[in-house]
Design brief:
The chain has 80 residues and is α+β, with helices and mostly antiparallel strands. It has one domain. It contains two helices and four strands. Strands 1-2 form a two-stranded antiparallel ribbon. A two-stranded antiparallel ribbon has the order 3-4.
Length: 80
């Protein structure tokens, strides 16, 4: 896993971690979570009219961001 800190356009300071998907999923599992949903964010169709060239590029060559929704694994919850 590698921490990346960058300054994007308009001065946005961004911090994110790069790790293999398998490692990320395994760490969630070991921590007692299940992946409920995995989404690869893509631009909305309306974005094409704002910047057609960039829209085409990011729809054909995804940038590698994933959004995960993890929930506690009910099989591992303590019984009351």
């Amino acid at each position: 896993m590698r921490l990346v800190e960058e300054v994007w356009r308009q001065g946005w300071q961004v911090r994110y971690w790069l790790a293999p998907l398998e490692q990320t999923c395994e760490e969630l599992r070991r921590a007692g979570f299940l992946i409920e949903r995995l989404v690869e964010p893509r631009p909305l169709p309306e974005a094409e009219s704002v910047d057609p060239v960039r829209y085409e590029r990011v729809t054909q060559q995804p940038r590698g961001f994933l959004a995960l929704r993890a929930v506690p694994d009910p099989r591992r919850l303590p019984v009351s």
